[in-house]
Amino acid sequence: MRRLLAAxxxxxxxxxxxxxxxxxxxxxxxxxxxxxMPVAANASAAGAQRRELDAAWRFFGDFREDAVPLLRRELxxxxxxxxxxxxxxxxxxxxxxxxxxxxxxxxxxQAALAINPDAxxxxxxxxxxxxxxxxxxxxxxxPQVDRAFLRKDVSIPLPQQGSxxxxxxxxxxxxxxxxxAGERHLAAQLRDPAVAKPVLDVLQLVGSPAxxxxxxLLLQSADMEIFTRAVNFLVRAGGPQGRExxxxxxxxxxxxxxxxxxxxxxxxLAQPPAPQAGKGxxxxxxxxxxxxxxxxxxxxxxxxxxxxxxxxxxxxQELLERLARIRxxxxxxxxxxxxxxxxxxxxxxxxxxxxxx
Length: 357
What we know:
With about 350 residues, this protein is mainly alpha-helical. Among the domains are: about 50-135; about 210-270, no CATH class; about 285-350, no CATH class. Helix content is about 65%, strand content about 0%. It has helices at about 1-35, 45-60, 65-80, 85-100, 105-115, 125-135, 140-150, 165-175, 180-190, 195-205, 210-215, 225-235, 240-245, 255-270, 285-295, 305-310, 315-330, 335-350; strands at about 155-160, 165. It has a two-stranded antiparallel sheet. A hairpin with a 4-residue loop joins strand 1 and strand 2 (about 165). The longest helix is centred in the first third of the chain and has 34 residues, at about 1-35. It is globular.
């Protein structure tokens, strides 16, 4: 009986080893298939490749414990290659970022830096990699983001929500993850007329009065679209500094169209309300609790009243610092709901910046 049991256990172990070997071989074959994928010649070929890649992801997901170490090994090897497979860099890094361990996160940064932004890669998948890598705040990634997303229009379909994140939202979600460094980088890009318009659109969501000097220079632009975007930024995100820049703008030298657009706005700016801390519709302790909830929930306003924050008696600097942190956390959520929450936080930051204390 003991001999029979031992034989049965040995047979089971051999069978498991054979199964593991077969699984590893199948995973390795999928990885080799990804590595060998040629650049898609057209949209039809790209679609077929995406279906193959989706099938590979499902297979890796079914055997995650086996797939993660093999993908980790192959990605490390690819990163050492003088001519790495762009597709394997992208998909292996994305899978590890999504399903690997904390120690796998640096792979996302390394792969994102090694990616050629001009390669014919799937835009939404490249966004996922860059968004994951941007959590590191490694500023070496910013030129990669510029080439892949600022100088190209990439939108992200969200089939489960039945919506799409547009190009401006995609850019905001990427640059916003870098905090103040992302804003400084964007402000510097305003010197390039080729990207001034999309940069101004993104600054509406990620910007602050720190960008006023760079944006103010564009008030002299003959391009009406740039001019209106610059004015809108200074009103919506520039705080008192933005208001001062607009009040200092002289109609002389502006086009007739610019004067028509700006004159009514200037009259409103000349007599703005003087926002002060309100009557405090909620106790300070409750407002702080709501701010803590916001920060913990990544800036999600469900159950939080923005007007209570705007009217609270909390010190101006405390509110600005806490809301800035909340907005930065919000960029981790790649959804349109997050972008709406970010817009709300940006409006609060701008309004509170007018307070005296």
